[in-house]
Write a structure and sequence with these properties.
The complex is a heterodimer of chains A (about 280) and B (about 260). With about 280 residues, chain A is an alpha/beta fold. Chain A has seven helices and 14 strands. Chain A has a single domain (about 15-270), classed as von Willebrand factor, type A domain (Rossmann fold). In chain A, the strands form four sheets. In chain A, strands 1, 4, 5, 6, 9, 12, 13 and 14 form an eight-stranded mixed β-sheet that branches. In chain A, α1 runs parallel beside α7 and α3 (about 140-155) runs parallel beside α4 (about 180-185). Chain B has about 260 residues and is an alpha+beta fold. Chain B has one domain: Phosphatase 2c, domain 1 (4-Layer Sandwich), CATH 3.60.40.10. Helix content of chain B is about 30%, strand content about 30%. Chain B has seven helices and twelve strands. Chain B has helices at about 50-65, 70-100, 110-115, 180-185, 205-215, 220-225, 230-240, and strands at about 5-10, 20-25, 35-45, 115, 120-130, 130-140, 145-150, 150-155, 170-175, 185-195, 200, 245-255. In chain B, α1 crosses α2. The longest helix of chain B has 28 residues, at about 70-100. Classes of the chains: A alpha/beta (about 280), B alpha+beta (about 260). The interface of A and B includes residues 53 and 55 of A.
Chain lengths: ~280, ~260
């Protein structure tokens, strides 16, 4: 059975995020005009990195259960970490935790233990800033992802398969990404094939289509293309998605079309919750 | 009657000895408290911060209590343990500052949430009919007590079937306000023991194997007694017969 490998310091896995940084990401979400897509995605990725670091934190330090990379693609394409991690393709989570580009402080309400709420200043580390400029060289990003993931698998051939999550708001401007996507998904470890999930964001007030199991009800060819480029959800992830209220079948794919900020966060949470991290 | 005991333990494969997060008490020979004996094991949740120290405080608090075991006294023990933990935590945080290793942003949420662990406590007391011993046990979570008499398993507490082990057992929190569910699920049971009886206190990974073997008609206590512990655990993990997790077995013999 695939996708059951134990994730440990001796056998880490990896997440690679491909982030569309084209000009249109400057536009707001269709459903929430107050939030620009680029800002929403940056916030969601920063929050995810934060949660991943917290999940891996023990008293002696952060355990390197995961390596993480963020690749932006737009006018400029490449690794998108800022600060001390600038230029790095895949970084162990302990180094991610130790090197945010900066740490913002935000005030949050927390329970005071006696039934009330108090203001607590919470540190909000930032690794990744929004960028929105240029075209959408998605093929190039997928090709670079292929080489990064291939390198990781060479070092960790038995790992829980790497997961690539592509977040985009539009069509590729450098060709049909199908071949590059298939090449990426054909990479495999002894525990299964690399997973490629696609999250499409909308500028229109359209209902998100989340975790479909066929392309029947998808509105256009572009949506069908992204669907065909998305991996099926592994068994354990179907369980997580169902816990979150989604109906799944064995054909359900890791794909969201016309996503809003809520579906971005939910998708990232479902995708990155560990199956076997102990 | 005499009581002999021994605890064997191993951290999860891939972890260092210092990363073991179960706890057990007593550490060596059983303390004879005027004809009564106490034992406890606890399984610290690997997802929470500082669950090892919390598990240690729980087992020690149970074993050092002088009040007879009841649901109410168990809750009081847990209440006192949370205070002991708070005091320990203050000292720990001060030590970290002194060592130039202050708490980092990624540890804060874990520390705020608190530590979590199971607790299984057993007390053996004189006073059963026929000069026997009475035993009483409490538990929260999925650490298990087994009683074996003449090669038969006669007690399995509190998990009865190997299929009942769940991924998310009830756990005791180091924060008193979070223990309502744990208290509502706290279990108590009692019985008598005869000379020759064996008791085993185990944390869940090995307890699940033990129960599965018993359900198959085997006598896992024989394997435990006869085998080198490390060899046995390595083999079971390798063959996929036991989940890779911290392992703790306290074996008690009533003579």
């Amino acid at each position: 059975m695939p996708y059951i490998a134990e994730i440990s310091r001796g056998n880490p896995s990896c997440f690679l995020f491909l982030i569309d940084q084209s000009g249109s990401m400057r536009d707001p979400f269709g459903a929430d005009p107050s939030k620009r897509k680029a800002d929403g995605v940056a916030d969601a990725i920063n929050r995810l990195l934060q949660n991943l670091a917290i999940k891996c934190a023990k008293a002696e330090g952060v355990r390197d259960y995961y390596y993480v990379g963020v690749l932006g693609y737009g006018h400029r394409s490449g690794p998108a970490f800022g600060g001390a991690l600038a230029g790095r393709e895949l970084v162990p989570i302990s180094e991610v935790a130790a090197n945010p580009a900066r740490v913002d402080e935000r005030v949050r309400k927390v329970e005071d233990g006696a039934g009330g709420l108090v203001d607590q200043t919470v540190k909000f580390p930032i690794w990744f800033d929004p960028v929105a400029n240029g075209g959408t060289p998605m093929c190039q990003a997928l090709t670079r992802a292929h080489s990064i993931v291939q390198g990781f698998i060479a070092q960790h051939p038995d790992c829980f398969p790497p997961m690539v999550i592509n977040i985009t708001d539009g069509e590729a401007t450098d060709g049909n990404p199908t071949a590059a996507a298939q090449a990426l998904q054909s990479l495999a470890t002894t525990d299964g094939n690399v997973l490629l999930f696609n999250l499409h964001l909308s500028s229109h007030k359209a209902s998100p289509i989340e975790f479909p199991d066929s392309d029947e009800n998808l509105p256009d060819n572009y949506a069908k293309l992204l669907f065909s480029m998305s991996s099926k959800l592994p068994e354990y992830m179907r369980g997580i998605a169902e816990e979150e209220g989604f109906k799944t079948t064995e054909n359900t794919r890791g794909f969201v079309f016309n996503g809003d900020l809520v579906s971005v966060i939910r998708f990232l949470d479902i995708g990155t919750r560990p199956a076997n991290l102990r | 009657m005499r009581v002999e005991s021994e605890t064997r333990w191993l951290p999860k494969r891939g972890n260092k000895l210092s990363e073991y997060e179960d706890a057990f008490y007593p550490k060596e020979t059983p303390h004879d408290r005027d004809g009564s004996w106490r034992f406890a094991v606890s399984d610290g949740a690997s997802e929470s911060m500082l669950s090892g120290p919390w598990a240690e405080i729980l087992v020690k608090s149970f074993c050092r209590s002088l009040v007879p075991v009841t649901k109410a006294s168990a809750k009081a023990i847990i209440g006192r343990a949370t205070m002991a933990y708070e005091a320990w935590l203050k000292g720990y945080l001060r030590r970290r500052e002194r060592e130039g290793r202050p708490v980092q942003w990624y540890e804060e949420p874990g520390l705020n949430v608190g530590a979590f662990a199971t607790l299984l406590g057993l007390s053996l007391v004189a006073g059963a009919p026929g000069n026997g011993l009475r035993w009483e046990a409490i538990c929260v979570g999925d650490s298990c007590l087994f009683q074996v008499r003449e090669d038969r398993l006669i007690t399995s507490f509190a998990v009865k079937r190997s299929s009942d082990f769940s991924v998310r057992p009830v756990l005791i929190s180091s924060k008193p306000a979070k223990n309502q569910v744990a208290f509502s699920k706290l279990k108590y049971t009692s019985g008598t023991c005869l000379s020759g009886d064996r008791f085993y206190l185990m944390t869940d990974a090995i307890a699940a194997w033990f129960l599965r073997e018993h359900e198959r008609g085997e006598a896992p206590w024989s394997a435990l007694e006869a085998s080198d512990f490390e060899d046995l655990v390595s083999r079971l993990r390798r063959e996929g017969l036991m989940r890779n997790d911290d392992v703790t077995v306290t074996s008690i013999r009533v003579l």
